[in-house]
Amino acid sequence: MVVRVPPPSAQPRSRLRVLLASGAAALALAAGSVVPGMPLGAAPQQAQAADSGDKTLTVAVAQGIDSLSPFLAQKLLSTSVSRLMYDFLTNYDAKDNHAIPGLATKWEPSADKLTWTYTIRTDSKWSDGQQATAEDAAWTFNKIMDDEAAAQANGSFVTNFKKVTAPSPTKLVIELKEPQATMAALDVPIVPKHMWDKVGDFGKFNNDEDFPVVGNGPFILTDYKVDQYVKLKANKDFWRGAPKFDEVVFKTYKDQDAAVAALRKGEVSFVAGSPALTPAQANSLKGDKNIKVNEGPGRRFFALAVNPGAQTKDRKKFGDGNKALLDQKVRQALFLSIDRKTIIDKVFQGHAVEGKGYIPPRFPEYAWEPSASQTLAYDPDKAGQLLDEAGYKLKGDKRVGKDGKPLDLRILCHATDPNDKAVAKYLKEWWGDLGVGLKVDCLDDVSVPWFAGEYDLAFDGWSVNPDPDFVLGIHTCAALPVKAKQSAATDDFICDETYDGLYKKQLAEYDPAKRADVVGQMQSWLYDSGYMNVIAYPNAVEAYRTDQIKSITTMPEAAGNIYGQDGYWSWWSAVPASGSGDSDSSGSGSSTGVIIGIVVAVVVLAGGGFLISRRRRTTADDRE
Amino acid sequence: MTADSTPALVKQADADGPAPAGPSAARGPRARNTKAYLKYVAAKIAGAVVSLFAVLVTSFFLFRLIPSDPVKQMTGGRRVSAEQLESLRHQFGLDQPMWQQFTSYVKDALTGDFGTSFAYHAPVVDKIVEKLPATLLLTGTAYVLYSLLGIWLGTRTAWRNGSASDRFNTALALTLYSVPSFWLGLLLIIVFSVGVGPIPGMFPTGGMSAGDGASGFAYIMDVAHHMVLPVITLVAVGYAQTLLVMRSSLLDEMGSDYLTTARAKGLRDDTVRRKHAVPNAMLPTFTLMFVNLGHVVAGQILVETVFSWPGLGSLFYQGLSTPDLPLVQGLFFVFATAVILANTLADVLYPLLDPRVGR
Questions:
Q1: What's domain B62-353's architecture?
Q2: How far apart, in whole angstroms, are the C-alpha atoms of residue A133 and residue A130?
Q3: pLDDT of residue A126
Q4: Where exactly are the structural domains of chain B?
Q5: Nearest to B300 by CA among B246, B233, B214
Q6: pLDDT in tens, A80-90
Q7: A68 with A606: CB under 8 angstroms?
Q8: Could you say which residues from 517 to 546 on chain A have a Cβ atom under 8 Å away from some Cβ of chain B?
Q9: Under 8 Å CB-to-CB from A258, ≥6 apart: which residues?
Q10: How many angstroms away from the CA of A597 is the closest CA of chain B?
């Protein structure tokens, strides 16, 4: 019988050596942070260009770039970068969003409203020294009109264009098929023809290989690493004046908590919420003396959309929306039993404004409010009364229709949006008290059941532009799908003659005040219909370091947002704080301290390993 | 924790491993067995090829099960006309019948073309090639470290089975194994990037480099600096598996007669462990290491996201959120191929380590 000899315990000396080696290595690593050049602690440190004391503004963004070609760019970050690289014909005033000169100094319609003439400025140069002219603008629009691949991003702006010409370097003429009031809101970056006419396939050219990229905006694109950063340097010759920061860097942080940590540390100057910082993040940052949390009226609305009966352009019905919702009284009853104030307080934790009209109040020119008699304020009793009138009586604790079926509804919610889920819980409770059942369907992508018309209600939201034409247009009959279940421009299958008539009227109305009045009527119609119930306008919540940014323009200027503006005001106007940019980058890999620390760690680890291996190279009697 | 209470994952891996071989077993196939070995290798490679084709077909249909409209997702919130939507559908081939999409997908894939990414407007292969080095650097480094740490600690804990250090190390490894990697990552960012109390902020909060134009050695050090926290996160949650498999297989060896013989020859305990017990106990661990090697390519979605590491993991996540069908199909194929190749390699090499396999 073989007796197993238990292994003796390991020699304490060996353990001690390993422990010492590990400890020394860890200390050496840490030393990398305490030697000169790598200051201790979370003192704010401004990222800066390696070669100089340039002032750099680093913006933490969650989104990546889909393309740096303005013909393809769809994402907010990409279009924001396009705004910095290229001038548009017109811009929006930071104070009140009214149209102001951009590349064009003047624009005027003909008497028949079908021809617009733009005067192109003479003091805008491309960054390669060439003059920007009307020819560049005409070429840009014609390319979008003629090349399907070049129309991916901005095709919607030219659908009503008949012809675009440049009779002289300072004169651009656009002929229209129908009158169009949005001609001072053409958000199309104008590109240099002499660079872009060499491009072969516009569907594949991403404008991200040769740097610096020739442009005429306030900044010049100098570098881009996919999903890492986008770098732009100030255009000192920009006609409106040079930006105050020498460089703007949009750095990708896929996790917003990590981005907030980077701001707290001083690695970035600004954190763009996506779309807003959470209340917890905002509150935690408010305690920091060097950080300002900027909260302004948002450009989004958060709403409930009702399926009015999905249909195609040629009025073929499809989908399975609950027929009960075709009754306006039922729709209004549902909205009378929503306590918006509670939602603002509990779900948005005060970081939103109570919803009223379709256009958020940050666009005062077009914002609309219901009259006192029109308002559908929280009133469960009245809601019950309306349901009774509509034929849905209470039997026990359920509302039952004339066909004997209980009134049970479904609501589509975005699984990725915590606000949807939280509001849905309240709706379930409030509508349950009313006797209406609610099933909440949370999906990662709601677009498939939505465009199949297989929903009763859905959480809805859009970012609104200074010109409201687009968000109004998504409720017209023209936006309906050609085929059933196919995605389309429509938002909610609304198709109504009255609304369509008003839409056409506002588009052909060139007088701003009269047009605003028609837009108000459209919102009034939407409100009364009960198809689109705006619950809240979530605030823009973002934060920046005051020890890096002394001042920055919000939009609207009085109180507004910084990231994702309809213009370049924020980054163009930002003034560096005195002393910012004078310290090392916290992420700088060229830090002597880090190098020394890591080298020492490697040496200590190697030494430790050598000592241990030496101990094991014992005498010859070890050998078999 | 004792050997009897090893978790399922260890027992599973252990069950897959071969029985212990004698001390001089690992000599490779002999001449008379060369033919048999080649036949065995050919069978394994054929199996891998069939698997790869199955993956190719599966990847096409799998991502079409996701209820989604890529075109609407891509243009989400943007001003688009019906004509633009139609044009986009046509450009991406989404207006073709499913069977037509499938045949062109297979035909193109066989020539190494996985199409053009919807979200990046660039060839899928280019995107993968662009992101692969970052992932290999991060997960490859972590893989080497957690494998070595797991083997070393697994050996130590098994050799001192039942001791305080065994109990502590096994419990710690299991605890870390259970910790969500993104949570641990965020914790490390808060403590070691921002700094807490007396602990200074030592490391960057995210990204792969400072992007300050550094080059050469300075750039290498910069990347290394950015790698520290994500690597620590991956190693912390990853070494337990190797530790437990190594520990379990070494415990099985420890009662073997050949070890008693070795000790009876008067060999030092250290030598008995390193030269006799560990090589045989390594066989199941070797299998596990190859399985893990296949996963190195797939990156780590959560850790790459928390640390904003620009690798394949975060690319896959972005691809799924559109869904960018060509991109996720291509990535899925690459990930699956890496696992199949790693397993095939393990199968091919195993008989060289354990002559009883493949005969």
A1: Orthogonal Bundle (1.10)
A2: 9
A3: 98
A4: 62-353
A5: B233
A6: 999 999 999 99
A7: no
A8: none
A9: B186, B189, B205, B206, B306, B307, B308
A10: 10
